[in-house]
C-alpha cells in the first residue's frame, strides 16, 4: 500500500536512467567538467554572494544544455560540445536572469519559513525546460511553470519531490556526485515537463 505513491516517480527515474545510459561517458564528462569549474569558483577572491550567483548561473547553463540535448534527442556521442551551449546562444539574457530571480525569491521565501520556499521551488520546476523549449522572458516562464505544476500537481508532486530531494542530497554530499547526477536529473525533469504538457 505504501509503495503505490512511489511507483510513478521510480518508473520515471528508471526511464531517465535508461536514456542517459546511451552515452554515459560524454554526459558525465560534460556535467563533471561544469561542476568542477563551478566548484573552483569558490577559490576566487570575490564576495560570497557573487560567488553563489555565478555558481547558480553556471549550474543553470549546464542543466539547460543537458535539457536541450535531451529535448532534441541528439546522440551525445555524435554532437559537438557547442550543442550543449545552444540554449545560452539562443536566449542569453533570460537564461542568465532566471536563476538569479528564482534563487533570490526562493531563498527569501525560505527565510520566512521553509514551506513557502519549497512551494516556490516546486511551482517553478519547469521554468528552465520552458525557457529552453519555447523561449520567452523569465517572468513568463515562471508563470507558465506555475500553471503547469498546479494543473497536474497530484501526479507531479511525488516525482518533483524525489527529483529535488536527490539533487539536494547529491549537492550536499559532494560536487562530483552532483555532476554525475545532473544528466539524470535533466532527463528526468525533461520527461516530467513533457508529461505535464500532455
Describe this entry's structure for a reader.
The chain is an all-alpha fold. It has one domain. The protein has helices at residues 4-20, 24-40, 48-71, 86-90, 92-112, 114-123, 127-134, 138-151, 153-173, 175-197.
Features:
10 helices, globular, mainly alpha, 198 residues
What is shown here, in short?
The chain has one domain. The chain has 10 helices and no strands.
Calculate the terminal CA-CA distance, rounded to whole Å. 27 Å
Rg? 16 Å
Number of helices: 10
How much of the sequence lies in strands comes to under 5%
Fold blueprint:
Blueprint: H1 4-20, H2 24-40, H3 48-71, H4 86-90, H5 92-112, H6 114-123, H7 127-134, H8 138-151, H9 153-173, H10 175-197
Helix pairs in contact: 1-9, 1-10, 2-3, 2-10, 3-5, 3-7, 3-10, 5-6, 7-8, 9-10
Amino acid at each position: 500500500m505504501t509503495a503505490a505513491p512511489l511507483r510513478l516517480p521510480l518508473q520515471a527515474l528508471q526511464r531517465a536512467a535508461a536514456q542517459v545510459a546511451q552515452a554515459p561517458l560524454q554526459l558525465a564528462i560534460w556535467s563533471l567538467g561544469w561542476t568542477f569549474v563551478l566548484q573552483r569558483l569558490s577559490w576566487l577572491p570575490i564576495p560570497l554572494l557573487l560567488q553563489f550567483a555565478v555558481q547558480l548561473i553556471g549550474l543553470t547553463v549546464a542543466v539547460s544544455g543537458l535539457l536541450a540535448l535531451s529535448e532534441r534527442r541528439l546522440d551525445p556521442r555524435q554532437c559537438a560540445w557547442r550543442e550543449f551551449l545552444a540554449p545560452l546562444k539562443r536566449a542569453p539574457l533570460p537564461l542568465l536572469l532566471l536563476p538569479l530571480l528564482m534563487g533570490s525569491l526562493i531563498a527569501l521565501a525560505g527565510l520566512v519559513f521553509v514551506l513557502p520556499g519549497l512551494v516556490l521551488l516546486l511551482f517553478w520546476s519547469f521554468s528552465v525546460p520552458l525557457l529552453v523549449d519555447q523561449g520567452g522572458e523569465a517572468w513568463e516562464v515562471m508563470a507558465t511553470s506555475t500553471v503547469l505544476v498546479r494543473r497536474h500537481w497530484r501526479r507531479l508532486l511525488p516525482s518533483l519531490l524525489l527529483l529535488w530531494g536527490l539533487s539536494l542530497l547529491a549537492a550536499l554530499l559532494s560536487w562530483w556526485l552532483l555532476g554525475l547526477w545532473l544528466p539524470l536529473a535533466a532527463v528526468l525533469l525533461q520527461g516530467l515537463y513533457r508529461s505535464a504538457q500532455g
